[in-house]
Amino acid sequence: MSVAPPGESANRGRADLMAYASLSLISIFCAIPFFWLLIASFDGNAQLFLRWPETWTFANYLRVFTKEDGAKWLFNSLFVVGSATVLVMVLSGLGGYALSRTRAWWKLPFLYAILLIRVLPSTALIVPLYKFLLTLNNAEGALLRPIFGGATRDIMRWTGFIDGYLGLILVLATMQLPLSLWIMKTFFDGLPRDYEEAALMDGATMIQRIRRVLVPLALPGLAASGLFAFMSAWGDFLLPLILLSSPELQTLPLGLFRAFLRINEIDYGLLTALAFIYLVPAVVAFGFARRFLVQTFSGGVKG
Amino acid sequence: MAKTLQERRAERQLMIVLLPSLLLLVAFVIYPAIYSVYLSFTNEALTGAAARAPRLIGSRNYMRLFGDAKFWNALFVTFVFVLGSAIIGQFVLGLVSALALRRRLVFRSLFSSIILLPNAAPEVVAGFMWISMLAGGDHATLSRIVSFFGLPTADWLQVFPLTMIIVVNTWRGIATAMILLTAGLSTIPQEIYEAARMDGATPAQMFRRITVPLMMPTILLYMLISTVSTIAVFGLVYALTRGGPGGATELISIYIYNQSFTAYQLGYGAAVAVITLLVSLVLGIAYVRAAKVEI
User: PROSITE patterns of this UniProt entry (chain A) (predicted)?
Assistant: First the structure.
């Protein structure tokens, strides 16, 4: 290392100081809104504004599960988003492998298409999507009703396309597919073909090659694909807002939003506790996904 | 060159494993996108006579758009929102963070974790937290901060609604800008700076003559990506203001939602959606071309 002239180190010191100052200000800006959520959720008499609690309590968290249907909302969110994530991991694993290895003519058009699909805003697709799902739902209802009669509604709660788990899971998964396919395609591009070719030489079938060779090798890629799918689906508000109406199917974002709309009886302790429960899995997933962020953001269109 | 039987079989298997993804994308993205073009030429509605017997009405929805002050208002609000939050707010704060985090600072990873945090919060939670920040009355956090500096307080979401949703969206997206710009900064070779320092360049000169020109491609890509993703913002602003007061924060996404599911005008909503889809598609194509994405 060369010896810096005396002016240089003073310069560096001042630049470091400016860096600390600006980072501190930006961090305060970023962190401040979270304080209220955290503190009010433990406040026995929570208000809309930030204040130091007189009594600290867990009662708000208990009320989420006793007074409101918090347990049901949490289950619905975990079930719907979890299923969608698993579906995305399976489909993007298989599809990403195909996109990486194929030499067919459709490779380039397909890849350009999924890049462009990612820029389409889901608010602009929601109307025709809703109409289409309604048609599918009516067709399914007409098909099931003669067979199951009065029990149809109970079955459609699981398999319906509108106001049913299946429709929301499929649509949520589809919205995450372009990014996940892209991640897996890029991941498989970086895996040498030697392993599969060796397995092929040994006479392994496609299924065996996938199970014994590709899945173990692809686990890091699948983790990234699944994490991004989970985060995006977990935070999504528009799709459940439009596709669900039954109270027993409500997910956490809907429960939170609707509880807040009951203007006359807003219980801030309960709401902040609910919001905090909804926030935690998102932050945990984000923590795990951090090391993948740079590759993903710079690799394709944003996440 | 003739393909061997085995190669053809392998290609067929690859197509089969991709098929489920293709089916889902066609059913729930491509088909709705095309269907929305058709819907935009009908008088389709959720309730009433038009719901039972929708018919083609030619370009009447599009004619109506041109005379609809609320549509132009939504376009204007969206434009200001994108300009204020993505192009200026997130970019400036993201660039400052990226530049500062390149130095060897003590709390580096703590700072970057905190800056990433808003990005992790679900839209509805983010909106909810900011309702508390921006509430009316002297106790709300922002009012306390400004009165600490001796400035007058206000019912922020009522008096400065558009400015406030720009602030909130800036808050949420600093991380994205920071990550992309950090990646761009890391591609500038350190030797260039050292050579410039030898020649006696000041830090300001180096920033203007080296960093900015070499970062231009990254900056351009960031602008395109963030514009497209900011046009799509819905839940964050809907949870905060639902488009109000009086349409002051009615982004194009909220306008589509309100026309379709509050006014039940599906055909008209689809016409607005088609315009939005086209704008996003053009920006997306520009991105793919500019980024020279490696496939």
Answer: ABC_TM1
Q: Is residue A49 part of a domain?
A: no
Query: What tens-digit pLDDT sequence spans chain B (295 residues)?
Result: 456 787 788 888 889 999 999 999 999 999 999 999 998 898 888 777 667 777 888 788 898 888 889 999 999 999 999 999 999 999 999 999 999 998 888 888 899 899 999 999 999 999 989 998 988 777 888 888 888 888 888 888 888 999 999 999 999 999 989 988 888 888 888 888 888 888 888 888 888 888 888 888 888 888 888 998 899 999 899 989 888 788 899 999 999 998 888 878 888 888 999 999 999 999 988 888 887 766 6
**Token pair of A225 as six digits:** 């694909």
Residue B14 lies in a domain: no
Residue B27 resides in a domain: no
What total number of domains does chain A contain? 1
Kindly list the residues from chain B whose CB atom is less than 8 angstroms away from the CB atom of residue A199. none
The boundaries of the domain holding residue A201 are 62-299
Q: How many domains does chain B have?
A: 1
Q: Which residues of A touch B262 (CB under 8 A)?
A: none
B112, closest residue in chain A (CA to CA): A27
* Residue A53 covered by a domain: no
Chain A positions touching B234 (Cβ under 8 A) are 121-123, 237-238
Domain-located, residue A46: no
**Cross-chain Cβ contact A121/B277 below 8 Å:** yes
**Which of B69, B76, B176 has its CA nearest to residue B117?**
B176
Pairs across A and B, CB distance < 8 A: 299
Alpha carbon A183 to chain centroid, angstroms: 15
